[in-house]
């Protein structure tokens, strides 16, 4: 039976600003990329999300970002490698402490937004992120863009790496994500998204934005929690995968809830 992980970004509410339906989404996905405060999230909300994930048996991953709260971490920050390494260590450590307080464990790291896209091909910031993860805990897995040089570099450094595809994002013929600034970059039709993900698991390919087929080898599928209708999309994806005989399960084992 083919298997796939289903993940989503969570813990991104801030104070009175609520983003996403974490409680409902945690009943659908198998891994939660939890914000660490630099692009979104406050300690109380992050703690609540970590606790809810643990109760639902969902694996928790750190979702560190550039220090860009106003821009939701979607803007490039020209930090020095030393600055970025410190920022990533700080964020992972913060989430580890919050997770530990509810009996949970952080099992992997998935960089967020502009940081994620930058390190996919960057020669300066990618090594800083890899070094930060190694220094905090080399047993942490890494979730990165399928087919990107970052995935290969992290593996070469000795980290356990899982490749990721995006359910609700369009791809270029070269296997990269279409910029959010471009029309059609984000997909909103639950059935279209679900059908694409079944094709991905069954054939290892997706239809690129120009109609061509692009090969994507992925261990995990991400559904963005801040997209309109995110929960409906995630539910449609999971239902379609399971109907096609695909087992949806986390790539890392979660400890049982107390």
UniProtKB/TrEMBL annotation:
It catalyses: 5-oxo-L-proline + ATP + 2 H2O = L-glutamate + ADP + phosphate + H(+). InterPro entries: Glyco_hydro/deAcase_b/a-brl, LamB/YcsF/PxpA-like. Pfam families: LamB_YcsF (PF03746). HAMAP family: PxpA (MF_00691). Forms a complex composed of PxpA, PxpB and PxpC. Belongs to the LamB/PxpA family. This is 5-oxoprolinase subunit A. The gene is pxpA.
